[in-house]
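Sequence in, structure out. Go.
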Amino acid sequence: MPVKHALPTAPVTRCSSELDALRAELRCILQHPAFTAERRQQAQRLMSCCTSPALLRQWLALAVAEGARWEEAALAQEANAG
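Output:
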């Protein structure tokens, strides 16, 4: 009689939904004017291949930081112009 092995599906589903959520958040952050359309397209290609939630979280943190630096530079430029 063959032995059936039941594989747990919850961790895979949880990981998949976490990946989907991280990718969606990254796509949203990448709409910031700090990122060109070309960079968004390149990031989308990388995100679609990435299966590591930790790496996507790291990219998200870097994108948020870059957007913040862009905002600070834009505010400084406005302050100097005015």
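Check: Residues 10-81 form one domain. The helical segments are 10-29, 37-49, 53-81.
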